[in-house]
Structures are given as C-alpha cells and as structure tokens.
Specification:
Elements lengths: L25 H14 L8 E7 L5 E7 L2 E2 L4 E6 L3 H8 L2 E8 L4 E11 L2 H10 L2 H9 L9 H14 L11 E15 L7 E7 L5 E6 L2
Antiparallel strand pairs: 1-2, 1-5, 3-4, 4-7, 5-6, 6-7, 7-8, 8-9
Helix pairs in contact: 4-5
C-alpha cells in the first residue's frame, strides 16, 4: 500500500524571527513564546514536549511528556526512573527536547544534559498531584510487559487498599529530571520555505552565542 504525500503544502506566513528581537538569554525568548502558546486558544497543552533519548539497545526513541517547570537553569519533567525512558537517560544523559506549536508555526529544539532532580523537589511536586496520579506511580511498572489490563487494574486496587486513609508517599523510583540546555534553536515558519532559524549555543563562560541557520 502506498500513499503519496508529495502534494501536501502549507504556506507559513504568520510571524518572523529577527536577530534584533532576540534577547541575550534564550530562556527569555522561550518564556515569551511559551506564554503566547499557553494563552492561545489554538494550542492544546502548550507544555507537551517530545523528548528523544538513546536507549540501552542503541536506538534513539522519542515520546511526548509534559514540561512541569522551567527556570534559568533548565527544563523539568517527571517520570519513572525504572522505565525505558528513565533507564536510557540514566545511562546516557544527552537528550533532546522539542516543542511544536503548529497553529503558531513555531518549533523549539533543545539539546541538553539531564540530571536527577533533588529528592526534596520531587517530593514537593509529588505531594501536589491528585491521589489517583500518586497511586498510578505505584501501580504501574512503566514500560514492563503486562499480561492484561486486568493486571494493571488489580495493581491499582491493591495500592488503593494499602494507602487507604493515609498520605501516599513518593516511590523512590519516581521523580524529576532537570535538562540543562547546551543549545536552543527557535524555528519560525516563513513563506517559500525560507524559515527563520535562530540557534543559541552555550559557551564556556556560560554566555550564549546567537547564530542564524539556513532553513
């Protein structure tokens, strides 16, 4: 079966990205773009991002996770450290994050190094989660093969009974990663495929070098 997509076309004409409008620190530009996406009625879950890692099998793998916080230091998300994703990152902490807001014709690509978030910070976020999400972190051995949906439901019911009428603690195998960026590229769609691409690269003195890339 073949499906030819060569005639698919879209003209990008909504915005431009010029060096004169770029701040010295890319986190400022990320903040501005994210705020616009988050406020837009056309963007659903502006904090949804793709994270790519190199698996233990040597293959790259991408999946969508939710950004939970960003600071001047980097980008924070949470996961099961024993999952396929968690093991991959702990084995090779070089990762790539990307955001694509198609309605704004914008993309951000972040290369960085991931490190485990401090336990007290993971505790604080875990405490803010609904009880159902907390129980799910206990009940799901993420990425492991299961026999059926019933196995998952039974696991959840077991932990519901275990933690009934008490605070649900954070599992030690669950927590946050902080991705410290080494480069951040901002992509703005433009007509005739002459897109704007501005890349910031972290220098040894922790300043950022700004360069325009050909589309």
């Amino acid at each position: 079966m073949a499906h030819d997509l060569s005639d698919y076309r879209k003209s990008y004409e909504k915005r431009e990205l010029l060096e004169d409008n770029c701040p010295e620190n890319p986190i400022e530009l990320f903040r501005d773009w994210f705020f616009t996406a988050d406020e837009s009625e056309l963007v659903d879950e502006a904090n949804a991002m793709t994270i790519a890692s190199i698996g233990l099998d040597g293959f790259p793998k991408s999946r969508v996770v939710l950004l939970k916080k960003y600071t001047w230091e980097g980008f924070i998300f949470y996961t099961n450290y024993n999952s396929e994703k968690g093991k991959a990152i702990l084995n090779n902490n070089h990762v790539c994050l990307s955001f694509f807001w198609s309605s704004l014709e914008q993309q951000i690509i972040i290369k960085g190094k991931a490190e485990k978030l401090a336990e007290n910070l993971s505790d604080g976020y875990f405490e803010s989660r609904p009880d159902g999400s907390k129980l799910g972190a206990w009940a799901s051995n993420q990425s492991e093969v299961v026999t059926s949906r019933n196995e998952l439901d039974n696991n959840l019911a077991s932990f519901e009974r275990k933690f009934e009428n008490q605070d649900i603690p954070r599992p030690k195998h669950w927590g946050g990663f902080l991705v410290k960026p080494v480069s951040i590229e901002f992509w703005q769609g433009r007509p005739n495929r002459m897109h704007d691409r501005i890349r910031y690269t972290l220098q040894k003195d922790f300043s950022w070098k700004l360069e325009r890339l050909a589309p």
